[in-house]
Every structure is written in C-alpha cells, then in structure tokens.
Amino acid sequence: MASDPSYTDTRRRLGVGALVVLVLVVLAATVGIGILRSALAPVETISLDEPATLATAPSAGVYVHVSGAVEIPGLYVVAEGSRVVDAVAAAGGFTDEADADALNLARPVSDGEQIIVLAAGEAPAMTEAGVAGDGRVNLNTADLSDLDTLPRVGPAIAQRIIEWRESNGRFSSVDDLLAIPGIGDKMLESFRDLVTV
After folding, report:
1. What distances in angstroms separate CA 86 from CA 29, 43, 69, one per listed residue?
2. pTM of the predicted model, to two decimals?
3. pLDDT one-digit tens code per residue, 75-108
4. What sign for the dihedral angle of Cα 76, 72, 107, 193?
C-alpha cells in the first residue's frame, strides 16, 4: 500500500517545527542561565579599614570606586569586562535621589575608575579633574573644555575623544588617540607632551 505524499510532508514539517521550537527553548534557557549567573556573580567589597595584602587581593577583576547617590558607596572589585551598571549594582544600586539618566550604564568600566552618581538636579563638581598636577591634560578625566585647550583640537575632535573613552574605557597610552578619526601622527605629535593618561 503506497503512502500518502501529503501525509509524509506534513509529518516532515511537524518534525522540523518541533526541532526549531526545541532549539529556541534551549537557547532561551541558556541565555536565562547566563543572566542569572552574572547577577549572582560574587563581587568583592574592599574594606578601607583593613590593609590589602597580596594573599587576599583578587587575581582577576578591576577596582572601581563608586560614590554619590548609591546605597553602599565604596571600593569594589568587579569582573573584567563589567559595565557601569554592574559597578552600581555592586554598590547596592541607586538611592531614591539618584539621577540614573546622568550615567551611561552600558559603558565598560576600567581599573582604577571612579564612578560618581549624582543626585537629581545636582551639578558635577567644578574641579580641574581633567588637568594633572603638572598641567598636562589627563585624557581619562578631561572634559570637553579641557580637551579644547589642546592645539589643533577643536570641539568636534574633543567630543570624539570623550566618545571613544566612553565606548572603550580608559586610555592606556597617549598613542590610543590614533584610533580616533581625525587624529593622525602629525596632529598627535603637536600636543603629545601636553597630555597624559
């Protein structure tokens, strides 16, 4: 007795459909487990009352100082590759007064960084944080006006420097500026001695 071709096609389609559903369920479970693991990942708080020793210092992670409108301000060690949102979560999250929109929560954090969470309506402190003690502009802390003081760097290039820093984390070397569109070897040499990291 010959089998019905439409019946065979229907069974084949159902089998493929079931396989697709199974793959999607496994993928969703994998993503869910990954999110849960990252949420439960241990975060180490550094006590300023106890001196750190090499034996107790974490081997993999970055130190981030979180201050301002967070529940538990302090120094934290977060996993390599963490973002601002992870550092804020390590500090207990935002307080009710925090201006959460003032931070780029998706920006990667870098070792030695300070994240200041402002309260709503609070203006950033007016300091010369972007200028090092020797008068050089610090590429990791400078604002638009600090960068605009450099020769041949106008507001557009200064904005690109800040955007690069927000996307890629701290500058590790002055030569990192060469990755920014509009800055070439000749331009960098014109202000190399005026900047630091």
Report:
1. 22, 9, 15
2. 0.45
3. 999 998 888 899 999 999 999 999 888 777 887 7
4. negative
